[in-house]
What we know:
With about 300 residues, this protein is α/β, with parallel strands linked by helices. Helix content is about 40%, strand content about 10%. Helix 1 packs across helix 7 (about 210-215).
Amino acid sequence: xxxxxxxxxxxxxxxxxxxxxxxxxxxxxxxxxxxxxxxxxxxxxxxxxxxxxxxxxxxxxxxxxxxxxxxxxxxxxxxxxxxxxxxxxxxxxxxxxxxxxxxxxxxxxxxxxxxxxxxxxxxxxxxxxxxxxxxxxxxxxxxxxxxxxxxxxxxxxxxxxxxxxxxxxxxxxxxxxxxxxxxxxxxxxxxxxxxxxxxxxxxxxxxxxxxxxxxxxxxxxxxxxxxxxxxxxxxxxxxxxxxxxxxxxxxxxxxxxxxxxxxxxxxxxxxxxxxxxxxxxxxxxxxxxxxxxxxxxxxx
Length: 300
């Protein structure tokens, strides 16, 4: 049997979905049964997973490296540990089946948000939170999202633009001028994920949650726009992220495009906003350094 005993303890919902899907896929490929500990989000899905409570004697099986790797396993008990962030690990059919939402939850949610689906739409998933000024993760600015809309969807003005984010105030600050914009406020992560499955096309960030919104919502006709990379700087050199995004998703490099002149004031507003964020970040860094320095002086 193959399990993931740390499910719910290693990352948030996006990471957890990868851990489940990869456990199922690796187990299937090796003709093993699979199971998981109790998972708080399971109440929203149709599939009842096999709950494993006793896994003391399971052999730890650690992720080899960040990019996809093969796992050839004997008929034994294994406890998977790592991130396993690649579609290449999945059994697509089993994964889609496992993450099918319960009909009562899903239908009630869709009815409540029916206006979002009154016409063809684009889901724009904006990741902020701990990604802002993070030394490891590639940064996507407001330019990336707006330019991705303008240059990839000629009919965008005739669509509903649905913004999902962990920082809705940021989205409103930059995108509320768009008359066809909707913002998923007061929605839980699981509700945002469920709503995404009804969307037509996607513009995503490099977060695992954005990834899953697009993957679960993807249809044969869907266009999925993604950033040029996941990691940055030295961390990117040491961690091969080439298997993170599926090859069929469209890479969009906003640095190769210019905002039309009609968005001049938006550019100015965005520049001032980013300047404020950077100043605040540097202030906090220096404040922390100063406090540590004072503590050392006092101890000395």
